[in-house]
Design a protein that fits this description.
Elements lengths: L5 H21 L6 H14 L3 E4 L2 E4 L6 H15 L11 H20 L11 H10 L4 H4 L6 H20 L4 H15 L3 H20 L3 H25 L1 H12 L7 H15 L3 H32 L6 H19 L5 H28 L9 H4 L2
Antiparallel strand pairs: 1-2
């Protein structure tokens, strides 16, 4: 029986920490680094998100504003503390987001820990930290891009939802969930698709329990980042919207391009299994296998729920995340690596939760749905 201890999880977190910190020296610049870094410089010097063209700063509206706003505020505080903003520190915000994302994911899995004994509650976090490193997630997540911030916001939103479902005063937690999910929506369209799907499923569960005030609190929270983002584009007038639309038109068309590329990599592994092909295709083929296994586990779990077994708040978040990830792969019009940064995290987190649940139920003889805190398990 597979079982991972707290020590194993701490060692895995330490390993991820070493990778994150040393990436300052070994990670080469990325294609998008200059664009997002100039937005930081513009925010620090001019209070806007601009880009230099021929010696003059021009406001740009080709990306959603949550990430540059958060990163700009981070480095404003960074410089306020007397710390330098230079080649060694320019990834500090992204590194902090990835570190916080891993910790938040571990906490979410711990909050949804099965009741198969204290040791088993560390198995799902351990599986997450192991499997995530073998997917396309590490390929692009440390570059100057919004995915890490968006996924962190999404995970914090799910954590707030779970905490609200367990709390005697849930409204403030659901307000926080709305704020975090709204920030995820305004970070990047790839994350936004997953966040929107997750939010719809969580809201539907709250409405099913007639917790309409909690849904209202979450909607109110989401309106803050979404409203600020809308105001950002509205303030620019027609030119800002034109920039955004022109930028979206440059994306490659095609339905389910993300899913089709995953299938293509699996085919390559079997058709032309050279060292070069395996090196390039292995993370994507592994992600495809994980997706298939996770969908099977989710189907088995849903059948158990339909048969009358208990289910809990954390499971709703997991199913919302998995549904949103599949939707992203089906709706993605291109197969850029950033699609798989988001998809890898969603698939691995959902798979780790479902696998940990099943393993604990088998080890302890508990119902798979009897997870989380006692007051949460009984409806």
């Amino acid at each position: 029986m597979l079982q991972l201890s707290r020590t194993a999880v701490l060692v895995l977190l330490l390993g991820w920490g070493v990778v994150l910190v040393t990436s300052i020296w070994w990670l080469a610049p990325g294609n998008d680094d200059a664009f997002y870094l100039f937005q930081v410089v513009s925010f620090l010097e001019h209070g806007s998100f601009a880009y230099p063209f021929f010696g003059e700063w021009h406001d740009v509206y080709t990306n959603l504003p949550a990430f540059p706003a958060a990163q700009g505020l981070f480095f404003a505080l960074w410089e306020g503390l007397g710390l330098p903003f230079n080649v060694y520190s320019h990834r500090a915000f992204v590194i902090a987001c990835v570190a916080a994302l891993l910790l938040a994911a571990v906490l979410l899995l711990r909050r949804s820990a099965p009741s198969g004994g204290p040791a088993m509650s560390w198995t799902a976090p351990g599986l997450l930290l192991i499997a995530l490193g073998a997917t396309p997630f590490p390929i692009d997540v440390l570059y100057q891009r919004p995915e890490a911030f968006g996924l962190l916001s999404l995970t914090v939103g799910m954590l707030c939802y779970v905490a609200g479902s367990e709390s005697a005063r849930p409204r403030s937690w659901h307000l926080g969930a709305g704020l975090a999910l709204g920030a995820a929506l305004m970070s990047h369209p790839n994350v936004g698709i997953v966040a929107a799907s997750t939010a719809v499923i969580l809201a539907a569960e709250l409405m099913w329990r007639r917790r309409f005030a909690d849904v209202g609190a979450a909607a109110l929270g989401a309106m803050v980042p979404v409203g600020l983002g809308a105001a950002y584009f509205l303030a620019a007038g027609a030119s800002g919207l034109e920039q955004l639309l022109d930028h979206t038109e440059t994306r490659e068309p095609g339905f389910a391009a993300g899913a089709r590329m995953l299938v293509g990599y699996v085919v390559q592994v079997f058709v032309s299994p050279s060292v070069a092909t395996l090196f390039r295709a292995a993370p994507f083929a592994f992600l495809t296998a994980l997706l298939a296994a996770t969908v099977i586990l989710a189907g088995v779990r849903m059948a158990q729920i339909a048969a009358g077994q208990k289910f809990v708040a954390a499971e709703n978040a997991i199913y919302g995340l998995l549904a949103g990830t599949i939707l992203l792969l089906l709706l993605s019009g291109d197969s850029r690596i950033q699609v798989y940064t988001v998809a890898s995290f969603g698939i691995v987190l959902a798979g780790a939760a479902l696998a940990g649940n099943a393993l604990a139920a088998k080890a302890g003889g508990a119902e798979p749905g009897a997870v989380g805190r006692p007051q949460e398990a009984a409806r």
